[in-house]
Structures are given as C-alpha cells and as structure tokens.
C-alpha cells in the first residue's frame, strides 16, 4: 500500500477507534486510547501502558522483552557485573548475581502476563509469535480470558513446558465451532487440529469447502455421512485420531468430487464400507498406520478413476 494511503487508513482507523498501532513514538498515549478495540504492538513497550478494558484484539510483532530493554528491568550494576564475569561460572558471587537476575526477570515477565490476563477481560484474539524469553511458565490467570476465541503463542521460550489447568476454562467446543463455521459462508479450506469429539452438523459447513484436514479431533461418530454431502469437496485428510470409532461408511453418491483421500493413524478403525457409486472421482487413496483395519472396502473396485493406492 502506498505510504500516503496507509497514513490515511491508519488515521481514520484511529479516529474511529477501530485499531491503534503502538510503538516507541506513541507509547505515552496508550493510557488515553480508552475504548480502542484492537491494538497492534510493533515495538517493545511496557504492556502496563495499555489501559483499554474493552480491548478485543491484541497482536504483538516484537519480542516480549528484547535484550536491549533488559537494562530497564535488571539493575544496571547487576547486569554490568554479570556481563564482566559471566565466564567465572564457579565464582559463588557470579552465581548469586545470575540467580538474582533470573528472579528479577521472572518477576517482571510474570507481571506482564498477569497484567494482560487480569485487565483485558474481553480479549478475543491474542496473537504473539515473535519469540523471546517469556518467563517460567504461562500463568494460571489465562483462564480468566473466557471470551478468548483465538490464541497463538509461537516462538516463546517458557522455562517450563507445563500448561496451566485453567486453559480448560476457554471455550473450541462443537457448539461454538458450529456457530463460527456458520458465519464463514465462503471458506474453501478447513483445518481442525484439536479435540472436539463431535463434528458440526452438515448445515453449519460451507458448501464451498474443497479441502478438509482433521487431526486429533477424536470424533466419536462417523464423520463420513456429514462430509460426503459437501459436493465440492476435493481433498480429505483424517489424521492422528481424527476419528476414534470402529466403523466408517461412505454411501452411494457420496463425495462426488473427492480426488485424494488420506487416512492416517486411525487406531480404532476396524471396518470401512464403501457403497457402490461412492467417490466416483477418487484418484489416490492413502492408508497409513490404521492397524486394526481388517480389509479394504469391497466398494473400491467400482471406482474406475482410482489410480494409486498406498498402504503402510
């Protein structure tokens, strides 16, 4: 986008309180933005500067606590001493200073997380993927963001990989997923990688879906009777316990456009039936690590377009 047009768009967005882009040049204004619903942080700023209780989206494009800002957190004399003696790993005083630095950093980083989780209660989107140290572990306070719909924490180095149990307070159940999909009328690609147990009913799915990948969904009911009704579906992948039932059935005339089909790590699948006339466009079939599957469906022999079958 041309610089001038970009400036006009940003100015209008700020005027309408649609979004606010924060960096070092305007960090001092963050306490006055009031009812801004979306804040984009392009450079490191103290998160406590943001005072917008109605915040809906918070996106970070810089490290959580860049090295050049450590001196604002760690006392200069402490950092200087450690920097000059960091090769003296057996020196008790150096070890003590290092421990103090870790404690100070952990306290600061934990304070940043807790401020976010306790002051932005209406947050729906939290996206952070720029990397950097993020403290000991994700605080339990994240469970207070009960309105959160999208969470991405990519490239963050937590010193403990244990996730807080309060994550279970956040809503990605089938009812909410169904309403989300209902509002996405024109999507053509859908990838779900989480446990949902039940697939939304057919009428919640976009009729334009051409590619579907399901992983670790642990669907308890056969998904085929729902998915086979998507008349434009060309590619389907069911991987890593996407379905945990024992039987699947593809009925006649189902999956009219499907070309490749991949079934991987469906550990409980014992029987797969394919009706005559199902999947009339299927070209490639891959079955990997479906250890309980007893035999290939008899109905595959009626698919004249099938060119490749891969079983492992």
TrEMBL record:
Domain Disease resistance R13L4/SHOC-2-like LRR, residue spans: 184-311
Signal peptide: none
Tagged with keyword Repeat: yes
Keyword Manganese annotated: no
InterPro entries given in the database record: LRR_dom_sf, LRR_R13L4/SHOC2-like
Source organism of the structure: Gossypium arboreum
SUPFAM superfamilies (alphabetical): L domain-like
Keywords from the named record: Repeat
Name of the protein in its database record: Disease resistance R13L4/SHOC-2-like LRR domain-containing protein
């Amino acid at each position: 986008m041309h610089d001038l047009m970009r400036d006009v768009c940003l100015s209008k967005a700020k005027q309408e309180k649609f979004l606010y882009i924060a960096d070092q040049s305007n960090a001092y204004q963050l306490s006055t933005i009031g009812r801004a619903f979306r804040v984009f942080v392009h450079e490191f700023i103290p998160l406590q500067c943001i005072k917008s209780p109605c915040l809906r989206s918070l996106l970070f494009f810089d490290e959580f606590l860049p090295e050049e800002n450590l001196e604002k957190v760690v006392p200069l004399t402490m950092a200087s001493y450690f920097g000059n003696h960091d090769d003296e790993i057996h020196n008790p005083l150096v070890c003590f200073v290092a421990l103090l630095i870790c404690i100070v950093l952990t306290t600061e980083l934990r304070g940043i997380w807790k401020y976010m989780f306790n002051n932005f209660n209406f947050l729906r989107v939290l996206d952070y993927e720029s990397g950097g140290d993020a403290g000991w572990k994700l605080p339990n306070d994240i469970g207070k963001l009960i309105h959160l719909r999208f969470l991405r924490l990519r490239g963050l180095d937590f010193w403990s990989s244990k996730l807080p149990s309060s994550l279970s307070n956040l809503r990605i159940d089938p009812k909410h997923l169904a309403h989300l999909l209902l509002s996405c009328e024109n999507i053509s690609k859908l990838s779900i990688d989480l446990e949902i147990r039940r697939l939304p009913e057919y009428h919640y799915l976009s009729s334009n879906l051409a590619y579907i990948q399901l992983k670790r969904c642990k669907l308890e009911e056969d998904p085929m009777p729902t998915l086979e009704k998507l008349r434009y579906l060309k590619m389907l992948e069911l991987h890593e316990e996407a379905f945990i039932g024992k039987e699947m059935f593809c009925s006649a005339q189902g999956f009219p456009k499907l070309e490749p089909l991949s079934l991987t790590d469906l550990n409980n699948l014992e029987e797969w039936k394919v009706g005559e006339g199902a999947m009339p466009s299927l070209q490639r079939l891959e079955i990997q690590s479906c250890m309980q599957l007893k035999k290939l469906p008899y109905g595959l022999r009626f698919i004249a377009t099938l060119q490749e079958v891969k079983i492992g």
